[in-house]
Amino acid sequence: NPAMVIGHNLEYGDECWASCDGEPIAVGVFKAGELHPSRVFVRPEKGA
Q1: Residue 19: exposed, middle, or buried by beta-carbon count in 10 A (0-12, 13-18, 19+)?
Q2: Maximum distance among all Cα pairs of the chain, rounded to whole angstroms
Q3: Is residue 48 assigned to a domain?
Q4: Contact at 8 Å (CB) between 8 and 16?
Q5: How far is CA 47 from CA 11, 29, 31, 35, 40, in A?
Q6: What's the gap between Cα 31 and its chain centre?
Q7: Pair 27, 16: CB distance under 8 Å
Q8: pTM beyond 0.85, yes or no
Q9: What does the pLDDT look like over 1-48, one tens digit per residue?
Q10: C-beta of residue 2 within 8 angstroms of C-beta of residue 36
Q11: Which residues does 35 contact at the CB level (< 8 Å), separation at least 6?
Q12: Residue 23 burial (CB < 10 Å; 0-12/13-18/19+)?
């Protein structure tokens, strides 16, 4: 699902990535103020 992008100078169609707590969580394309992910990274559970 698309996610809103805050505070960056991106142009429509630019490739970009998202992070949470300094960890990369997704890469995708910027469209109309949102990151449209092409790949989402799942962090393994601790102890798994």
Answers
A1: exposed
A2: 40
A3: no
A4: yes
A5: 40, 33, 37, 31, 21
A6: 12
A7: yes
A8: no
A9: 888 887 678 999 999 999 888 889 999 999 988 999 999 999 778 776
A10: yes
A11: 2, 3, 4, 5, 16, 18, 26, 28, 29
A12: exposed
Does residue 46 form part of some domain? no
- Inter-CA distances, 22 with 5, 11, 13, 18, Å: 16, 23, 24, 9
Q: Is residue 32 part of a domain?
A: yes
Dihedral sign for Cα atoms in the order 24, 20, 1, 3: negative
Provide the token pair at 47.
């102890």
| pLDDT score for 41 | 94
* 45 lies in some domain: no
